[in-house]
Specification:
The complex is a heterodimer.
Chain A (H helix, E strand, L loop, with lengths): L1 H6 L8 E9 L2 E6 L3 E5 L14 E7 L2 E7 H4 L12 E5 L6 E5 L1 E9 L3 E2 L7 H4 L2 E6 L4 E5 L1 H5 L1 H6 L1
Parallel strand pairs in A: 2-11, 5-7
Antiparallel strand pairs in A: 1-2, 1-8, 3-6, 4-5, 6-7, 9-10, 10-11
Chain B lengths: L1 H29 L4 H21 L2 H18 L7 H24 L8 H22 L3 H7 L10 H24 L5 H27 L3 H24 L1 E3 L1 H4 L2 H12 L3 E6 L4 E3 H22 L3 H6 L6 E10 L2 E8 L6 H10 L5 H6 L2 H5 L23 H10 L3 E7 L3 E9 L4 E9 L2 E6 L3 E8 H7 E4 L2 E6 L2 E7 H5 L9 E9 L2 E7 L1 E9 L13 E6 L5 E5 L1 H8 L8 H14 L2 E9 L2 E7 L3 E8 L4 E3 L2 E6 L2 E7 H4 L13 E8 L4 E6 L1 E9 L4 E2 L5 E7 L2 E6 L1 H7 L15 E5 L3 H13 L3 E5 L2 H10 L4 E5 L8 H9 L8 E5 L7 H6 L4 E4 L3 H13 L4 H11 L1
Parallel strand pairs in B: 2-4, 9-18, 13-15, 20-30, 24-26, 31-32, 31-33, 33-34, 34-35
Antiparallel strand pairs in B: 1-3, 4-5, 5-7, 6-7, 8-9, 8-16, 10-14, 11-12, 12-13, 14-15, 17-18, 19-20, 19-27, 21-25, 22-23, 23-24, 25-26, 28-29, 29-30
Helix pairs in contact in B: 1-2, 1-4, 1-11, 2-3, 3-4, 3-5, 4-5, 8-9, 11-12, 12-17, 24-28
Classes of the chains: A alpha+beta, B alpha+beta.
């Protein structure tokens, strides 16, 4: 991604952390790079009838069954246009991996901690629980996804 | 770090040693002279003690040292083995386990010092010394002084040296075995299993690919790949297998402790300990197995004196067998105890309201026996600490069934009981039926599958029928509730099917049919759990990866049944019996007269309506007008031929010439006889399944005495046959009765008996219907079911009392629970009286009573006026 390079911060910043980035609609997200297990092209998906709306289906990841969660539905954004297939960003966790379906995958960025800020209070509640904070990069804002919240459907529904 | 490693090794090793000790000690008790066994026990304790010293676990060292001293005396023949000593050593083993657990958790021995145990061990050692030494009278003082000291042994050294030498030779021998084995983490094996599963899929794809093109080189490679993969899969599967002996090891100890506690003598035999099972299964059957063994010890095997009195050896025998059979593992637990008295099981089931008496009669002995697996069932007369609390056997059953196993019990009173478990070899791979529905593939575990039914489209409309909108299928005479998978899962139905596929499934003790779009084939599938995001969906049991690499969901049969409503929620254990009791009362039994006429092989009328059964001579029939009559008890009895009334045609057998079987109905004033071919039987039964009949003269059909039986519409028959009955009655004496009940069948029965009592009857099926009838016509009495509307028929009372013209109409409550709801409580709710819905006599009497003591005669006059 071309915009990735312009956003990266020089190695002189000590308090830097690495983020894997992706796009959902016009939102630009980052996830701690260590949490990302792998990135896949769209896979065949087995639908799960009666499952929560955000669950798009199940994919076979080398013998491991991975639940795919659609980030668009989670953020209450309109569905992807016909023919636009999502990418899988597979996040590892203690009890099995989960795949986040995103529009596009961005670069891995080194980000200066100093650019961090809490998300604004006025944020939409659907997004509010998922976004831990915001990095004010030069040309755009990178939202830090709270991976645990994203994977824990029950707790969020209850909240 | 290295210390940690050493300690971990020590713990693992010690646990293994201890479990062997348990077994060996029990064996030793039976064969106290077995030197080799004793040596082996001694060596085990010795090893633990040695390592403890090395690792500076002083508590452990102290205990084991004392035990060792005791054992060394045993071995040297200085004292006799008795159960007290065995108990002491077993206690030592327990103490050692406790300390090990503490070490494992915190690296420390914990605060418990086990001084009491050490003291008792020491006392036992001393006792043996004094016993031994008194006759010899040598070095008494010296021994007494030296023994309590846990230091390097005075008397121990000579034997110690021998022991050391022997241990050395043993060590060299056993190390060869040790070298051939390594310990591997279970996680690693599971991971390997996953990868092999994936390799199998890749192999399948390659084979598919290979079959499409003709390349000899590829073909050869594909074949090799095929072979190697299969072998690899088998090999990896084997790594997860464990002999069942792993869990049997602890049983001798369990049995011994139980026997001691209960004052019984029990001999445990085990056969087939080497039978291998997947480790997940081993884990799952551990507790049920222990429970069954305890049960056999407690309830099965009798006390020695009882056994002797019936001529059995004093020591009971408990036999465990395990063997492979047909891809499954069978485990049998048999005892030669008292066995189970089937009659008492039946009685108990009836007492607890689990069964109706006639249901209990119908059960085969084997079925009755398996009632002990029902929740809340315990035949034990007394509750002991060991078992008999009524939980347990049902838990055993549910545990075994959860892993796809089956439990069965055979018992011969006096000869013992055998419980047989059939367990699948592995949990990870199960046979499943692959089906499609709504364009998706699903797998149904084969264990729940009973049969497949295919209905061709030209007949399918006729054969899936509806009971008030609920689909049912007539399967060999009983109604099978039907659910459609597409509806349950909210999938789109296929436009036009050429046939309907019904899968008959078993969920717990109930059955239902599931309609699916297509049935593919059966496959061995690898079960994988669903992620936590999907755990809440009870309709899926897991997921699997199909041959094409795609994921398919495994259906949970129970969950599907509940979701679709064909099965009600699982009965909770504690509530179970109470609920079953009310169920039992709700479908009150009724005495029915069974007879046969023409092509109707089984007809029934409520016996309460019948006054007599007569056999009349053909010659006695006379004609009165166009009606056949006989002189009967000084009166003229009109006869109705049921064969004509039902247009029943010729039956298989013609009735014996010269004699007529007549069912006589009588209401005090009028009589009529119905001529039937043959009286069959009287059954007392709840009407289980009801189907309305469209045929005139029949109310519907029910299963009585296990067979489908048509219920005669007496009302219709009597009325339609020549007016002998109704035109002559005292209509004016009758009342106008409104019968409000939900069940058409119940209404018809009451209608029938009221009609015969000379009353005029209108029916209503619910509250609204009742109001509508009341608005249309005057009514003298209302008979209403207590639970007429969901809100309770208190609504009805208030609706009646709300309108002036209805205020005085007496309301009789129809109950299902005779004696349960008292008339007093009914009156409190506004009912004049409560009567049992199935007791037609009582209903008639109550209606008659109401007429005579009507609260306000003017009301009756009013009503009469209105009618004019």
């Amino acid at each position: 991604m071309s915009n990735g390079n312009t956003a990266s911060i020089g190695p002189e910043t000590q308090a830097a952390s690495q983020f894997s980035t992706f796009f959902v609609g016009n939102l630009f997200f980052g996830v701690d790079v260590l949490r990302v297990q792998e990135v896949l092209l769209f896979q065949h998906m087995t639908r799960v009838p009666l499952a929560p709306q955000v669950i798009e289906g199940l994919i076979n990841l080398r013998g491991q069954i991975v639940t795919a969660i659609d980030m668009r539905r989670m953020l209450k954004l309109p569905d992807r246009a016909e023919g636009q297939s999502p990418m899988n960003m597979v996040i590892g966790s203690e009890d099995g991996a989960v795949s986040l379906l995103v529009d596009e995958i961005g670069d891995v960025l080194d980000v200066d901690r100093a650019l961090y800020e809490r998300p604004p209070e006025s944020l939409d509640p659907a997004a509010r629980q998922l976004i831990r904070g915001v990095y004010k990069l030069k040309d755009r804002l990178m939202l830090v996804l709270d991976v645990e919240k994203a994977m824990d459907l029950e707790e969020r529904n209850a909240a | 770090m290295q210390d940690q490693e050493v300690i971990r090794e020590f713990i693992v090793e010690s646990y293994e040693n201890l479990s062997r000790l348990d077994q060996e000690l029990v064996e030793l008790e039976q064969r106290p002279k077995d030197k080799e066994l004793l040596t082996s026990i001694f060596r085990t304790i010795h090893t633990i003690k040695g390592t403890c010293g090395f690792l500076a676990f002083s508590t452990l060292e102290k205990i084991t040292h004392q035990a060792e001293s005791l054992l060394s005396r045993l071995r040297d023949g200085q004292c006799e083995l008795d159960s007290h000593i065995v108990s002491l050593i077993l206690e030592t083993v327990d103490a050692t386990r406790k300390v090990l657990a503490s070490i494992e958790a915190s690296n420390e021995e914990g605060t418990e010092r086990f001084e009491d145990l050490t003291e008792r061990l020491r006392a036992a050692v001393n006792a043996s010394d004094t016993k031994q030494n008194r006759p010899a009278s040598a070095s008494l003082a010296e021994d007494g002084a030296a023994n309590p000291a846990p230091g390097p042994g005075s008397d121990e050294s000579p034997s110690g040296a021998v022991e050391a030498a022997r241990a050395e030779t043993d060590a060299t021998r056993s190390s060869a075995i040790a070298d051939a084995n390594i310990r591997v983490g279970v996680g690693l094996l599971d991971n390997l299993m996953d990868l092999v599963g994936e390799l199998v899929l890749a192999r399948n794809q390659i084979l598919q690919f290979n079959s499409e093109r003709e390349d000899p080189a590829l073909n050869a490679t594909a074949q090799r790949l095929n072979l190697i993969t299969s072998e690899l899969q088998e090999g990896v599967m084997k790594t997860r297998m464990q002999p069942i002996g792993v869990i049997w090891n602890k049983l001798p100890r369990v049995v011994r402790d139980m026997a001691q506690a209960l004052g019984k003598q029990i001999q445990l035999e085990m056969d087939g300990a080497e039978t291998e099972l997947d480790r997940t299964i081993i884990e799952a059957i551990k507790d049920p197995l222990v429970h069954l063994v305890r049960n056999s010890c407690d309830h099965g095997i009798e006390a020695p004196e009882v056994r002797s009195s019936v001529g059995k050896p004093a020591a009971g025998k408990l036999l465990l067998r395990a063997y492979h059979e047909g891809g499954q593992v069978n485990i049998e637990i048999s005892d030669d105890g008292a066995g189970i008295d089937v009659a008492s099981v039946r009685r108990k089931a009836i007492e607890k309201g689990m069964l109706r008496p006639e249901q209990a009669e119908k059960l085969s002995d084997r079925e009755a026996l398996n009632l002990v697996f029902q929740p809340g069932f315990s035949t034990a007369q007394r509750v002991t600490t060991v078992s008999g609390r009524g939980v347990g056997m049902d838990v055993v059953k549910s545990h075994i069934e959860k892993i796809g196993g089956v439990v069965d019990m055979v018992s011969q009173p006096g000869d013992g009981t055998t419980v047989k478990l059939k367990i699948p070899l592995t949990l990870a791979i199960i046979p499943g039926l692959v089906i499609t529905s709504g364009g998706e593939r699903f797998v149904i575990p084969q264990v729940s599958l009973l049969e497949l039914i295919r209905l061709e489209s030209d007949s399918s409309d006729k054969r899936i029928e509806h009971v008030h909108g609920t689909p049912v299928y007539r399967r060999r005479g009983t109604l099978l509730p039907i659910a459609c998978l597409n509806d349950v899962l909210g999938l789109k139905s296929r436009a036009q099917a050429d046939a309907t596929n019904i899968i008959v499934l078993q969920a717990e003790d109930r059955q239902f049919g599931l309609v699916v779009d297509g049935i593919n084939d059966t496959q061995e599938i690898v079960v994988k759990p669903l992620s936590k995001q999907l755990k809440g969906l009870s309709i899926y049991a897991g997921a699997t990866i199909m041959g094409d690499g795609r994921v398919a969901l495994i259906l949970d049969v129970l969950g599907i049944g509940q979701r679709s409503g064909v099965l009600s929620e699982i009965r909770e254990q504690s509530r179970g019996s109470a609920e079953q009791r009310t169920e039992f009362l709700a479908e009150r039994k009724q005495r029915m007269l069974l007879f046969r006429t023409g092509s109707f092989e089984r007809l029934a009328v409520p016996l309460s309506l019948v006054s007599r059964l007569e056999e009349l001579s053909q010659d006695s029939i006379e004609k009165a007008g166009d009606t056949q009559v006989v002189q009967y008890r000084g009166r003229i009895l009109p006869l109705i031929s049921l064969r004509d009334a039902l247009s029943a045609g010729e039956g298989h057998e013609t009735p014996a010439a010269g004699h007529l079987q007549v069912v006589v109905f009588n209401d005090g004033e009028r009589s009529a006889g119905i001529v039937v071919d043959q009286i069959l039987d009287v059954v007392e039964e709840a009407i289980d399944i009801r189907e309305k009949s469209s045929r005139k003269g029949l109310l519907g059909s029910a299963v009585l005495g296990g067979r489908v039986t048509d219920i005669l519409d007496l009302n219709h028959i009597l009325r339609s046959s020549g007016g002998a009955w109704f035109n002559r009655g005292r209509r004016e004496a009758g009342k106008r009765v409104l019968v409000a009940a939900k069940s058409q069948f119940r209404r018809s029965l009451i209608h029938c008996s009221l009609d015969m009592g000379g009353h005029r009857v209108v029916e209503a099926g619910d509250l609204d219907g009742t109001i509508r009838v009341l608005e249309k016509q005057p009514v003298d009495v209302v008979l209403a079911e207590l639970d007429l509307s969901p809100k309770g028929s208190g609504e009805l009372i208030s609706a009646l009392r709300g309108r002036q013209e209805w205020q005085r109409i007496p309301v009789l409550g129809l109950t299902n629970l005779d004696g349960r709801t008292t008339t007093a409580s009914g009156q409190a709710r506004g009912y004049r009286e409560l009567v049992d819905i199935s007791d037609s006599e009582a209903v008639l009497e109550a209606v008659a009573r109401l007429g005579s003591d009507a609260p306000n005669p003017q009301d009756a006059g009013e009503l009469a006026c209105q009618e004019k």
